[in-house]
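Shipment paperwork, digital attachment
Item: protein structure file
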Amino acid sequence: MKPVIGLIGLGAMGGGMARSLNAAGHTLRVFDTRPEAAAAFAQEGGTACGSVAELASGCDVVISVVVNATQTEAVLFGLDGDGSGCAGAMKPGSVFVMCSTVDPAASIRFEARLAGRGIHYLDAPISGGAAKAASGEITMMTAGRPEAYERAGAVLDDMAAKVYRLGDSAGAGSKVKIINQLLAGVHIAAAAEAMALGLREGVDPAALYEVITHSAGNSWMFENRMAHVLAADYTPLSAVDIFVKDLGLVLDMARASKFPLPLSSTAHQMFMQASTAGFAKEDDSAVIKIFPGISLPEKP
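Attachment content:
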């Protein structure tokens, strides 16, 4: 029998992951801080739960797709450690799969605290975007003990095209994800800078996009995010403040070993500037709005 799965967090990524698990035939329980989101998903299949503890009490595998370490800790142990989280309701031998981008040290702490309760843990950050999440084609950067993979490995395979096993204890997955976010943030910032220069110089933005996406200067982030700029659609699939957080984690990790990251530092400042200018909740491509003297494309 397939394990009963609980998924916490039905945002752009979590919602897509829930749909891919549902399509794979899993019995699925879901929770979101927006009850309407869980209720809407229940219409597609699965059971909406009123709390993370209610969700966890009936699950073999619990997958958390929240924003950061603070939210993950609240999911596990409740607000201020009040015990209202899912850890107290999970049965021994079940698995908690942590999919957020967090400080590796935080992930290591989560693993140790859950081990004391007889609960397995997978450090499993994700990448790929909402469309790949919905089709079961994300990338997962995982680390954990063999026992956790024995119980949850098939579940990971139903959510992801690539499941990388990077170590036998927590931390390695989060480190690789942070390095991925270094590149993603720098690439978005560089893409925005390039498009902004083109606009400043009077180059037709659609023509510039066409040329760059078929030339050596292209990147996945240029192709994906500058399409948002051309459409003047800043609906947040990944918000500016996500990269304020993630590039902050990049710099924190490097600072601990006194390792210089000049490009990451500059990109972080660009996202900080965009956030404080009022674009915090817009799509991360809105970092282009910090450049003066350019006329951005408008919606048709």
